[in-house]
Amino acid sequence: MAHYIDSAKPGASPATPAYVLLGDDLEELITEMNANVETKNNILGQTKTTLDSYQPQASVEPYYAQPEDPLFERLQEIADKKLVLDDLKTTVLEVRLWEKSGSEGNKYAAYRQDAIIEVVSYGGDTTGYQIPFNVHYTGDRVKGVFDATTKTFTADSDAGNVTV
Length: 164
Prior knowledge:
7% of the residues lie in helices and 51% in strands.
């Protein structure tokens, strides 16, 4: 799976996303589903369990800052200005490299989703300056196709393209 995150500032002009591929220095990137599960016992001794929602998030750690990386600039600005609310909004792409779409080119099934960036900390040691962060997924996922050659996402439900 390939993970991309939009490094552009919310409301930036032009409104074209500036997607960055996550993975450099990461040994793993796991999306925790964080299900909301409630278990109740009634007076008959029966247990009832319900799962009514998910609050997925992923931890990007380590993230070593590279001055030429636009994601570094976005993360550093969040830390420097202590940004909150809408200033943390972004979009992410999950590209399923095992799931080809069609028989032509490098097209794969993918999902786009809104997200919030949470900078966890910043600093480092002799290995380099780090800005680990969490991605909190929000809203509905949009299924579509990612073209790795042209680096565009096309949603199944509409013809909107997102240039990566």
